[in-house]
Amino acid sequence: MLWVAFVAVTGSDGGGSAPMLHSRPIAVGPLRVTVGATDPGIIARWDDLYAGFPDAEPGSSTEELRVSISHGATGMLVSMLDGIPLLEHPDLAAHELEITRVLNHRKLDSEPDRVHLHAAGVARDGRAVVMAGRSGDGKSTLTARLVRSGWEYVTDEQITFDREGTRIEPYPRPLTLRQGVWHLFEGIGGERKRDDYHRVETSLRELGGRAAGAAVLPTVVLAPQYRRSATNSLIPFDNRADVVDFLVSCCHDTERLGTEACAVLVGIASRCPAWHLHFDDVEVASALVASAWEQAAGSPVVGHRRLPGRSASAATGWGWCLAADSVAWAFDDGSGVAYQPTTRRFARLDALGIALWEILAEPTPASVLLADSPDEATGVAVETWLEMLAASGLAVRS
């Protein structure tokens, strides 16, 4: 159980003992989360922020996190995590942000066999839009606008795929909105105008939205990027290998799961068309998200295959060959990707790179590879590929 206890005290001496109140137990992935507090307002606030989560089943998990927050004599609020100071701040909203941050990490650590993206998501009719990218690119703002306009909320922080990578399990944590966008959402932010405080956790009730009630199908991948004076536009990724490259850059688990995580991301890139979304107007961007979602419904799957790895006889050969644990996939659009779990290096492959990979499953002298090149330019490209594969640990001299 994940236990968060808020203990409100009126002075340094404790000022008496109020009864401990408890929030609704919720299921956050495999965690069971409950809040305890002596202040009913804190309980009500927590239940509001986390209303999108389902009730926790009895006996679901034994993990426990003890956080207390108290009013000290100075008027500051002090959060304690297992007896260790976590945060000292006068605004309860700052503690909400910190507790949510801790929960993000605990959820990630409690799901070692799942693939997670740093991404937001919304859904309609069981089909989800995955909006991945860096912090500050406008994902949460765009998600809040979409939720307010009727899309179901999946998450604004952590997309979690099931073990097969075919479904997204909702993580409807509070949406975090920066002060610069509060004016876009009536009723958000209130009177919080402190110079040293610029974010607020926002509930679905405040946005007039609802959470996705069940796992949803990933349908389209977007890379949103807010820039002032940007042209509002959808720009397709060049190929599916570029989509995998982008997803890898947003994935929390490539080091932890290695080849397994890459295989999941390859499958997602195969099934989901992807666009860069450039915008400076959240209303226009919302319409572009809807357009991408509609286009994705009619888009065919781009097939892919796993390329052969190093053959069993390669160790006794001579010349160039693939590293023993290197893996690669080729898409039907002519692009490919390769991954080296030991060096944790990732590479995109073009048609020549794919052809060279298949040859190097068996030991092959560089002289043979160059002799088979139809022209000088191809020979130079082959040499370049060999150097790149060797530098990444994907190929070696056997």
TrEMBL record:
Gene3D superfamilies reported for this sequence: P-loop containing nucleotide triphosphate hydrolases
UniProt xrefs under SUPFAM superfamilies: PEP carboxykinase-like
The name this protein goes by in its record: Unannotated protein
